[in-house]
Amino acid sequence: MNEYDSNRIYDLTSRIGFKKTYVKEEADCFILNTCHIREKATEKVYDEIGRIKKDFKKTKKPLVIVSGCVAQAESEEMMKREPYIDILIGPQSYHKISDLILSYNRKKQKINETKFDAVNKFDELEKVSNLQNKISSYLTIQEGCDKFCHFCVVPYTRGPEYSRPFKQIVNEAYNLVDNGVREIILLGQNVNAYNFSKSNKNFTLSSLIRELNNIKNLKRIRYMTSHPKDMTEDLISCHKDCEKLMPIIHLPIQSGSDKILRLMNRKHDRNFYLSTIKKLKNVNKNIKISSDFIIGYPGEAKKDFEETLDLIQKIGFVNSYSFIFSPRPGTPAARKKLNNLLESKKRLIKLQNILEKLQLENNKNYLHQYCEVLIENKLENQEKYFGRTKYMSPVIFDSNNCNPGELINVKITSFNQNNLFGFHKVNKVQAA
What we know:
- This protein is α/β, with parallel strands linked by helices.
- It has three domains: 116 residues, Rossmann fold (3-Layer(aba) Sandwich); 239 residues, tm_1862 like domain (pyruvate-formate lyase- activating enzyme, Alpha-Beta Horseshoe), CATH 3.80.30.20; 55 residues, CATH 2.40.50.140.
- The chain has 14 helices and 19 strands.
- It has a five-stranded mixed barrel. A four-stranded parallel sheet has the order 1-2-3-4, sandwiched between helices. A three-stranded parallel sheet has the order 5-8-11, with helices on one face.
- A hairpin with a 4-residue loop joins strand 18 and strand 19.
- The termini are far apart.
- The model has no long low-confidence stretch (mean pLDDT 93).
């Protein structure tokens, strides 16, 4: 979502004359768009500002803007700690960035803009074309969260759940496809909680997927990140009926232990999660699952960890993200007694070894097989191309005739844990 927001920030600032530069010394404005999910995010911001201060020590100070969730969560502290910051903008206020820059340039007064205003934000963004033209593009449809998992800071930095108007999203999707986008990834903190009503008509994520499935030049649809409780029957049925919807779902569970799921306030248990996976596989046997795991959550015992390992083996996740519990200020879990860090590190290594083995086994299944790849780009300074399978697996391959945006069949000749390697060959017809 931060990548989507960053692209939209550029769309906005380009209207008042700003252009991207890849030469740091040329810049007269730095925008640090931040995430607050992980513990070290805030320190990374200060480190980056320190580098900017050093680079511009003997030249004119650039305008420094911090946007996103760190700005939202720690705005007052950041203004006190780092005077080099000129403007702070929360994730629900970045649509105002151009006006804020112009105001700062006139008055030279620091600005702290961290109000929750999702409705106005997307109404304003609708007036500015999304200029993204990559083959695969993100499209935010929903923001915020009402789940209040005890470890998560999102409800406090992104606010309550808000679903963008249905027609607004569809229009943006058509605009992206007209720009050359061939894959759209629908985004939300709880993307499958999308729910928009107008004139007594209700639109859900399944409504959106079915609408996008009809866009002529769009080739693939994905969505992330989902909550198990919002994996409804109508959404599940899309994986049977919509040929452009990819057969991989990122469905975080965080723990395989019912006790830990209750402590996390996840609002579902292990059996509910397993039954949801079963429903999905019943409508499409090719569906695969990726997930998130938090290790060392306060109260996690050896038995709870073993139940997580057991769940992993039962489902066979093709890709997952895993971290040691990181207390976020202001969340209920931050007040809990931490587990032994050394033990948590051992558990994380054990869990990641199992997940990596599963990922390697999944990649091995492609060996000597043809798989459908959406070409994203040609690699710089190489006669190779990059694309992804239906399951998001990266593929690096040789080809004698292909173009970004095409769907082609690549024969896989080798693999490692993260990538597949292969070739695509077209027999050229000789002229008579």
